[in-house]
Each structure stands twice: as structure tokens, then as C-alpha cells.
Amino acid sequence: MPDHPRAAAARQSPTAGRPAASTAAAGVLVILGASGDLTKRLLMPALYNLACDGLLPDDFAVVGMARGEMTTETFRTQQREEIARFQTRRSFDEERWRWLESRLHFSAGDFDDAAAFGRLRALVEEVGRGTAAADNTLLYLAISPAFFTVVNQQLARAGFTRLPGRKRIIVEKPFGKDLESARRLNESLLSLWAEDEIYRIDHYLGKETVQNLLAFRLANGMFAPLWNAGHIDHIQITATETVGVETRGEYYDKTGVVRDMLQNHLLQMLAYVCMEPPESLDPDVVRNAKARLLESVRLFGPEDVRRDCVRGQYGRGVRVDGSPAVGYREEPNVDPGSNTPTFAALRLHLDNPRWAGMPVYLRSGKSLWKRGTEIVVQFKGEDGEGANLLVFHIQPFQGVEIRMQAKRPGPAFELQRAGMRFDYAETFEASRGTGYEVLLYSALNGDPTLFSRTDFVESSWRIMQPVLDAWAATPADDFPNYTAGSWGPRAATALLDRDGRHWHECLSREVLTRSGFFANAPAVLLNTLMLAFRPLAVDSGATVVERGERSLDLFIVCRGELEAIGAEGERLGVVSAGECFGEMALLLNQPRSATVRAVVPCDLLVLEGDDFRRIIADFPEAEAKLRQIANGRSEASRPGKGS
Ligand code: BG6
Questions:
Q1: In angstroms, what is the span from residue 260 Cα to ligand 1's centroid?
Q2: 254 and 121 in one domain?
Q3: 317-318/136-141 β-pairing
Q4: Do 582 and 531 reside in the same domain of the chain?
């Protein structure tokens, strides 16, 4: 559906000619829970980055509050030690840090002690007195949600809700644990603060690449006419992590992947990608568009959850670095019989004119084979394999890519998949931030665009609630159902197979070179392979190639082990992680000389025969290496030589 003409006009105006960032508004930032992890890891490094970039005003102060004995002096010393560990810039600017340090203050006290909040208020007034900062107070709840209500009540009792000038309360996730608790939390906040004083953080909105989704939609008109179900086949939003739950077992076991990632981060990205283009960058216009999009998500019934939602939990496996990884149920502070999902894949439908009939697939999990957040927009094409893809690489690689077909150099008219890439690191000089810079900067300026409103939060819980309910009512009978370090449960692959689609696993050079096979491969070869390989997950006992067949695909083993079986059913050898098989048929021009069967569940990469032939012709060294392997195997498979 073409864009509304006003939206088209808005694409010019909202981004074009916007002024470069200037110093933020004067203000006092109060951090409740200032001795915790968030302050030292993210908030202080972000403030320091803003200070280095000249974006904090002179009339600026931080007032920390936490339990314990800390004083302003010891708070400053502590933060000075921590910033050396957690700052994100190439070098440390002592002068800028001193500038910031001199603005740090501290007031100790327990959250249930009303007098402590009286002292806090007195200190906030004292540091702001006689300056513009007195008119702008930010109250940052860097505390466990268990304390939200009591701290809010104490703040109100101490008069923070009646402060003169602007005041805002910044709330970190998790925002509730289900629809009901999120509603209660909203009610309790709204009884003390106005909606425009409540800033709910989702740190994904602080990521440059997530904000770029909005810029991309608004400022690049060439895609607008194609941005609908008439031209787009489907959209995949994936956020995978290689880490397990680490030290967060207690939190995570009560939370699970749906609450931890899908309800917030993935739905935020979905909203940016699929909302109607807002007519301006006015915060409420953008937030209205996002809220409307979430309202159009079709709610799952119990049968839909069974059909369209896949859950997983990791069992023992191998980490990326080759070391053994424990299963989720063996992690510290996790129930040994836990039913908590650490992986989920969902198929959603958006019931609105723009997207009617087009599925969106969401996927996230821990302890997987690759860390990466990507949004893949697959355009319609006659042949699924050759379809154009637009890929938003959110992290760790940051960029946007178009995958398309190109003519291969040479006299024959042959096509090959190619990629056009915009890489943040090659395009911008900006220092690496924490993602919190823009959130703090916006909060100081009173710009709520990047913060979630009540309606968005409640809609996002409404979407996920049926999934949470159905999974709580029927414990999984197959957990753990994926190996740590693998590509996740087989059922997630089947979810797309059923629709005649497959997940686009965005390979990176780092992931390919992890397999010893490509360790010293030239960059051009790696770039070509990144686009050409397809992932294939096979179950234990599954046959991947059959002796005598004339297929030409090459397989790389990422995880697991397979056995090669000869004519008499004898075992010719095993192929394990980092090795390849399937090369003999192509290089020695033979039918398959052995059947290859998975001994355990395996994750493979497949290079299809045609691509394999083309690529090998361009890279004689890779061919030589494969030929060596093939000759060795051919020798070994002769009668009497098999192992
Ligand atoms: C947090 C989750 O919100 O996001 C974590 O609680 C998760 O479990 C993290 O690891 C992922 O954030 P990022 O920025 O590393 O993608």
C-alpha cells in the first residue's frame, strides 16, 4: 500500500535539517540504588561519554541514594575506580571525568526510612539551589522492581511529586511480570505521577541501530512503496545470545525468554519496522504509531500457541570457545526441574491493511551458537532462494545490507548472491557508547520519544500473555530440547519449514573462522561464503547424504558428529565439528561414496552444489585444500582401508 502523501512529506521534514545535538537541559539526576551494577556499568559511563562530548550542561548534578554507609566522598572514589573499568572510549579523559566527579553527591538511607527521603530531598534542593538545575529533577529507579512501590510512596511523602519545575521518574525493566501486574504498576505510578512524567526504559531503544530503523523508514523513500504485504513475503526478527543465564539464575528462572526479551525488546523492534510511518517526529505521533501497530497484532488462542509458538530450554553442550557448557537446569539458583523457556520462536500476524496475510517470525534465546540481533525483511520473489533480502544488523555487527543477485564476472551469464552493505564502523567516527547516553540526554531534555507509554506496555503484555498462560498450564515434556551452543530446538526450524521458509542465519566472518576449516581463508572467500551457506539442523540418526546419489552439496559441521558408512554398512570414519564432508562427489566427479548419518543432533552449514562449483572455481587454494581432504578420504574408503 503506498504511503499517505502527508507521511511522504513528513519523510522530508522530520529528519532533514535537524540541528546537531546541543548541550542537554540543566538538571539534577537522582539515582535511587546508586551503589548497584546499573550505575557503574551503564549510567556513569554514559554520563561520562556525554560529558566528553560536551553534551552535559554546567548546571548538572547527580545525587545517588542507596543503603549503607557511603558518603559523597566515598561515592566519588568508588565511581572513579569503576569508570576506569567500564568506560567505553579509546582513551580516558581525566579532566572531563574530574568535571563530572565534582558533580556527584550521595545521600545514604534505607528505602523504608521516611527520614532518609527527607534528607535526600534536602540534598537535591541544596545542589540545585540558585541554578537552572533546580527546575528539572530526574528520579531514576535503578532498583529491583520489588522496591518500586515503596520507593514511589516515599518519594511522594517526601514531596518529590510536588517539586516546583519539571520532574520525571525513570523506570527500568522488568515492568511487571504479566499483564495484570503491569496494569497494577501503571496504576500505582499514575496515582502519583502524570503520564508525561513517567519514562519507562527499554534499553534497545538506546541502540543506534534500533533508532536507525525509524530513520531508515522515514528518510529513505525508495523503500516506502514496497513496505507492505504486497511486496514483502515475511519478516524475521532474531535476537540470539551465546551466553547462558550466568549469575542471574534467580531472576531468570522466574522470568524466561518471553518476559525477558520478546515482550519488550523484540516488540519494540517490531513496532519500528511495521508501524505506519508517523507524520512527524513529535514524540506522541511516533508513540501513537507504535501503539497502534501493537494493537493490530492478532492475539493467540490456546490452539494458536500450540501451532505457532515454539519454546526451548538448553541442555549441556559446548561453548563457542570449545569449553563445556552446563545445561540450564544445572545453572546456579535455577530449579533443577525448571520449566522456564530460554528460547522462543513465534509466528505473528498483523491484522491491518498494510500487513494482512504476511507472517512475522520472532525468535530469541540464550546459549545459542551465535550472538546477533538481526531483522530480515524478505521480499517476494519467484524463487525463495533468490529473493531479495533487506537485513538490519542491530548488533554486534552494525549496519544495513541488501542481498541480491549479481552477474558473476566472466563470459557466461551466471548469477550469484551478493550483498550491498552499509557498515556503521566504516561510515561514522562516533565513539562506542553504552546506549544509555541518548536515554539520559532525552530524559534531561524532557523528550519521551524513546520511552514507553502505558498503552504500549500494556499492549505488549496483552500479546504475550496467552503464550505465558499456555506454557505455564502445560509444562514442556521435552526440556531440555536444545544443546547449549547449537541453533536452538528443531521445532523452531520446523515452524518455518511448514510455511516453506527458513530462518536466515546471518553468518559473520567471526562465526565462519571459528570453524577451523576457514581459519586462514581470504576475506573475499569468507564474504562469498557468508551469503551462500545455508544452515541445516539434523536429528540424531538422520541421513544427510545417501551412498550412490549424485548430489553435489558441501557440508560443514558446526556442532555434533556424523558417521560415514560404506557399502557393507561398515563405518568408514566420523566427521566432527570444524570438518567438512561432501566434497568428493564434486571434486572427484563421483556419486556419493558413503552414506553420512548424524550420530547426535548436528548443526551443519550447506553450500549448494551450484554455488560450491562456482566458488571453488574462483578460489584455487580452497579447492586445493578440499582436494587434499577428498583424496585422503577416497584412499581411506577403498576396500580394506575403512576404519
Ligand atoms: C536484557 C535481558 O534486557 O537484555 C538480558 O534482561 C539480555 O537477559 C539483554 O541478555 C540483552 O541485551 P543486549 O543489549 O546485550 O542485546
A1: 8
A2: no
A3: unpaired
A4: yes
